[in-house]
Amino acid sequence: MPQTRGFLPPRTKRAVRTRDANPYRQFATEIGERMTVVDVETGDLYPTRVGAEPSLVRRQDPVVWPGVQSGPIDRQTLASYDEKGFLTVDGLLTPAEVQEFWQELQRLSNDAEVKADERTIVEKASDEVRSIFEVHKISEAIGRLAADERVLDRARQIVGSDVYIHQSRVNFMPGYKGKGFYWHSDFETWHAEDGMPRMRAVSMSIALTDNYPFNGGLMLMPGAHRTFVSCVGATPENNYKASLTEQEIGVPDENSITKLAAEHGIEQFTGSAGSALMFDSNSMHGSGNNITPFPRSNIFLVFNSVENRLHDPYGAAAPRPTFIADRNFIPVQR
Description:
The chain is of the alpha+beta class. It is 26% helix and 20% strand. The chain contains 10 helices and 13 strands. The protein has helices at residues 26-34, 75-84, 95-110, 112-116, 135-138, 140-146, 149-159, 186-194, 240-243, 254-264; strands at 55-58, 86-89, 120-122, 129-133, 163-173, 181-185, 201-207, 219-220, 227-230, 267-268, 276-280, 284-287, 296-305. β3 (120-122) and β4 (129-133) form a beta hairpin. α1 packs across α10. It is globular, with a radius of gyration of 19 Å. The protein starts with 25 loop residues before the first helix and ends in a 29-residue tail after the last strand. Keywords: Dioxygenase, Iron, Metal-binding, Oxidoreductase. InterPro entries: EctD (IPR012774), Phytyl_CoA_dOase-like (IPR008775). It catalyses: L-ectoine + 2-oxoglutarate + O2 = 5-hydroxyectoine + succinate + CO2. Its EC number is 1.14.11.55. Its cofactor is Fe(2+).
């Protein structure tokens, strides 16, 4: 496994845990008692946005799927991913590669044609670029990265099959005014609005800047990926246009978040530029605002199994555009 390398000396990844002396610890014991098991006869293992009250649904799918016998992830790390729902890779990119991709992000964000494209999302207040979707098709360099064995083989090893890119984007969180994202499970949206049937997708976030505990780094609840939070509220038409800047539909209720945090605690991804985080589609995660001078940017790739093709949306009238959720299930090839 590559070693951590970046522009600053490597830092130990820090875990912020909230398990001990938690005043809400009582909620943890209630999770098992109140867990909902879905009737599979409905054909929807994870119903959401259909009930009057939120509910907790026991995961019906494996975390690490069988099918690929070997790969770059060792057994111990794979077992930890199965337990926690995420893993980290130190030094996935070399310092030279980090610089190359950072320059590519700067080029894209300053390109007037790219900024005017519907695949580019800008901040409400500042009109600055927040994300560029389908970036593996816009940028040849990022397209090659998605097919790199360091990336692709890890994804295949987790989902147990060939994979296609369900979604790709680059994210920009500038210093002082970078906006975070509230707690959520990506799978809830991919299931409700894209029609992804099973939890058989994995995301990889590749850091192009140093991730400190204080500049809006991603927070995750280890182990919460085994619980699906069924949300309330019907999906508005073209909900994606608003949700990509600030998600309001498909957001877990505070009571469910409190229960999961009491049971599982919270950890945060930190590390040098070039490191990577891989996390399960149902990982409960979120990030705070970045009020520091230190920006945070990353390349974000979502790999879905070719055996987990999208259906009609389970909780929306129509699927989101293909630049957000691709419906061309061609396997990524090295």
